[in-house]
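Propose amino acids for all 579 sites.
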C-alpha cells in the first residue's frame, strides 16, 4: 500500500473500532498522544536546562511538532487520499530525531518517545509500518554519531542496539495484534452481514406465509409445544385465542386453556347429534401430540351448522447430540388446518338423494313394463305369433334401462355388503363371459380366456362377478370388432390373485385416466364412441374391489387399447378390514 493511499479497504474497520474515524478531530486527537508527553518533557527540561533553547536542532524539532499539530487540525483529510496516520507518524519521527539531536547530552530519554509513532504506523499499515518505524528509530540513534555529536563507546553501542530492538518488538506486537483483531472484525462483519441477509430472507418468507395464509380459504392454527398460538389466520380462531388467553390470565387450569377456546363451542360428531368431548376436540388432540387427517365434525354457531375437516401435524425441530450428531427431531409445536366442507357434503348428499330418487322412480315403471311385456309375449304365443321383432326391441331396451337403474342403486349404496369366502376365479370369469356374450355378439367382439391354473381368491363370488361383468362389458363396448382377452394368474410375492382384461379399442387419454374411476365420469373417447352409459361401471368395480382389500389398476393408451388389472387377496391371506 502506498504511504499516502487510503486504507479504507483494510484498516478502516479496526481503526474505527479502536481510534474512531479518519477526520480532522480524530487525527489531531491521536497525534496529541505523542505531542503532549513530548511537550511536557521539553518544558520540564527547558526550565532545568535553559541552554537547550540555543540548540537549533532542538528548537527545530519542537517547531516540526507544532507544525504537525496544526497540520493535523487544519488539513482536510476526508477530501484527499492521504493517510493521516502515516503522515503524522513520520512527522512525529522527524520531530523526535531533531529534538534528540539538539538535547542529546541532557535529554537522551527523548528516544523512548519513538514508541508512539511506531505504534501508530503498526496500527495503520501493519508490518510495513514496523519496518518504516524501525528504520526511523535506527536513524534517530545513529544521527548523533554521523554528525559527530556523540563519541563511539561500548555504552553508546549498547544503547544503539537496545532501544531500536525494544521499539521494533513493540511495533511488531502491535502489528500482530492489529492484524488478528482486523481478521476477527472482518469475520464478525461477514457474520453480521449473513445474519442480516438471513433475517431479511426470514422476514420475506414470513410475509409471504402471512399473505398465503390470508388468501387461502383454510383455517390454520400454529401452536408451540405448550399450546400457545403463534399463527392464526381466521377471525373465528382469533376469537378462540382471545378466550384461551383470558383463561390463562385468570389462572385457569392448564387443561382448560389447552383447548384454546374450543370448550365454548358446540362441536358434534359426523352424525350431527353426538357432542364431541373436550379431550377429542381437534386442537386438544393436537396439543396432546396426536397426528391425524380429515377429522370430520360439525360446529353449531348462532343457529347455523357448519362441517369442518381437520388435519393436525407436529412441527419438527432437529436436535443434535453433545457430539453434534443429528438426532431424532422433537415436536416443537403443532399445526392444525380446518377446511370448511359443508358445501362438499351437501353436494354429496344431494347427489345421493338424487340417485336414490331417480332409481326409485324408474324401478317401479320398469318392473311394470317388463311384466306386461312378458304377459303380452304369452298372449301372442297363444295366438300363434312366436316371432314379434318389435316386442324384442321393447324387452331389450327395458332390460338395458333396468341395468342402468341397478348401476345407480349400487353407486348410491354407501356400504356394500361383502362376504368373502374361498372363490374359484375361473368359474367367476366363465360366468361373466357367458353373461357378456350377447353384448359381444352385438359389437362383433371376440372373447378369449387365458386361465392355465386354478386360482382361489378370498372374495365374495357375487360381488366379483359384478366387478368382472362391469370391466369386461366396458372392454367389449369400447373395442368393437376386436378381441377382448381375460387373463387369470397369481402374484406369489404379494399373495394376490390377478385378473387382467385386455382390449384393443379406443383407449383413454392420460388426462382422463386420472378421473376414470370417478362417479358419473365419462372420457372423451367414450362420449365420441356414442356408447350409452352413466359412467358408473368402473366406479362401482373399484369400490367393490377396495372393499375386498384388493386394487383395480388401469393402463391405457389412446387409440391402442386398455388393460385393467384386478388384484384380490388369495385364499389363506388375511383380508383387510374394508367390509
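Proposal:
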Amino acid at each position: 500500500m502506498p504511504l499516502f493511499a487510503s486504507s479504507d479497504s483494510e484498516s478502516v474497520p479496526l481503526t474505527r473500532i479502536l481510534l474512531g474515524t479518519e477526520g480532522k478531530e480524530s487525527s489531531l486527537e491521536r497525534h496529541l498522544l505523542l505531542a503532549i508527553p513530548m511537550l511536557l518533557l521539553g518544558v520540564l527540561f527547558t526550565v532545568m536546562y535553559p541552554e537547550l533553547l540555543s540548540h537549533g536542532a532542538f528548537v527545530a524539532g519542537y517547531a516540526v511538532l507544532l507544525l504537525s499539530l496544526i497540520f493535523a487540525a487544519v488539513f482536510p483529510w476526508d477530501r484527499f487520499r492521504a493517510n493521516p496516520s502515516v503522515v503524522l507518524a513520520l512527522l512525529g519521527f522527524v520531530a523526535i530525531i531533531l529534538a534528540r539531536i539538539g538535547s542529546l547530552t541532557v535529554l537522551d530519554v527523548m528516544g523512548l518517545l519513538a514508541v508512539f509513532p511506531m505504534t501508530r504506523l503498526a496500527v495503520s499499515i501493519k508490518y510495513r509500518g514496523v519496518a518504516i518505524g524501525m528504520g526511523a528509530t535506527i536513524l534517530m540513534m545513529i544521527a548523533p554519531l554521523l554528525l559527530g555529536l556523540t563519541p563511539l563507546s561500548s555504552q553508546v553501542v549498547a544503547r544503539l542496539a537496545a532501544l531500536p530492538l525494544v521499539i521494533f518488538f513493540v511495533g511488531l506486537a502491535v502489528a500482530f495484534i492489529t492484524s488478528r483483531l482486523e481478521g476477527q472484525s472482518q469475520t464478525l462483519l461477514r457474520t453480521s452481514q449473513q445474519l442480516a441477509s438471513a433475517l431479511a430472507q426470514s422476514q420475506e418468507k414470513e410475509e409471504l406465509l402471512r399473505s398465503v395464509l390470508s388468501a387461502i380459504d383454510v383455517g390454520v392454527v400454529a401452536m408451540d409445544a405448550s399450546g400457545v398460538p403463534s399463527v392464526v389466520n381466521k377471525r373465528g380462531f382469533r376469537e378462540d385465542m382471545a378466550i384461551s388467553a383470558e383463561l390463562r390470565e385468570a389462572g385457569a387450569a392448564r387443561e382448560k386453556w389447552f383447548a384454546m377456546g374450543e370448550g365454548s363451542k358446540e362441536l358434534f360428531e359426523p352424525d350431527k347429534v353426538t357432542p364431541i368431548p373436550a379431550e377429542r376436540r381437534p386442537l386438544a388432540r393436537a396439543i396432546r401430540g396426536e397426528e391425524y387427517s380429515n377429522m370430520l365434525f360439525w360446529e353449531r354457531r348462532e343457529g347455523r351448522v357448519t362441517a369442518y375437516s381437520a388435519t393436525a401435524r407436529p412441527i419438527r425441530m432437529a436436535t443434535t447430540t453433545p457430539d453434534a450428531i443429528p438426532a431424532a427431531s422433537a415436536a416443537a409445536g403443532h399445526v392444525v388446518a380446518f377446511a370448511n366442507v359443508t358445501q362438499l357434503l351437501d353436494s354429496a348428499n344431494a347427489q345421493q338423494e338424487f340417485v336414490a330418487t331417480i332409481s326409485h322412480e324408474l324401478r317401479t315403471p320398469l318392473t311394470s313394463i317388463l311384466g306386461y311385456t312378458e304377459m303380452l309375449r304369452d298372449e301372442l304365443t297363444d295366438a300363434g305369433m312366436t316371432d314379434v321383432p318389435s316386442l324384442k326391441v321393447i324387452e331389450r331396451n327395458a332390460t338395458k334401462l333396468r341395468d342402468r337403474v341397478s348401476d345407480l342403486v349400487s353407486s348410491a349404496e354407501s356400504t356394500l355388503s361383502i362376504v368373502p369366502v374361498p372363490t374359484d376365479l375361473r368359474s367367476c370369469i366363465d360366468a361373466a363371459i357367458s353373461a357378456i356374450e350377447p353384448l359381444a355378439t352385438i359389437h362383433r367382439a371376440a372373447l378369449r380366456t387365458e386361465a392355465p391354473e386354478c386360482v382361489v381368491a378370498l372374495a365374495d363370488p357375487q360381488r366379483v362377478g359384478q366387478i368382472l361383468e362391469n370391466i369386461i362389458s366396458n372392454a367389449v363396448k369400447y373395442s368393437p370388432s376386436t378381441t377382448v382377452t381375460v387373463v387369470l394368474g397369481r402374484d406369489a410375492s404379494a399373495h394376490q390373485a390377478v385378473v387382467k382384461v385386455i382390449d384393443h379399442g379406443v383407449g383413454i387419454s392420460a388426462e382422463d385416466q386420472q378421473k376414470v374411476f370417478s362417479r358419473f365420469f365419462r372420457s372423451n373417447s367414450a362420449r365420441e364412441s356414442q356408447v350409452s352409459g352413466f359412467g358408473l361401471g368402473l366406479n362401482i368395480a373399484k369400490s367393490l374391489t377396495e372393499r375386498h382389500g384388493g386394487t383395480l389398476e388401469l393402463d391405457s393408451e389412446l387409440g391402442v387399447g386398455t388393460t385393467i388389472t384386478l388384484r384380490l387377496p388369495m385364499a389363506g391371506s388375511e383380508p383387510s378390514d374394508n367390509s
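Confidence is low (pLDDT under 50) at residues 1-24, 251-258, 574-579. The radius of gyration is 49 Å.
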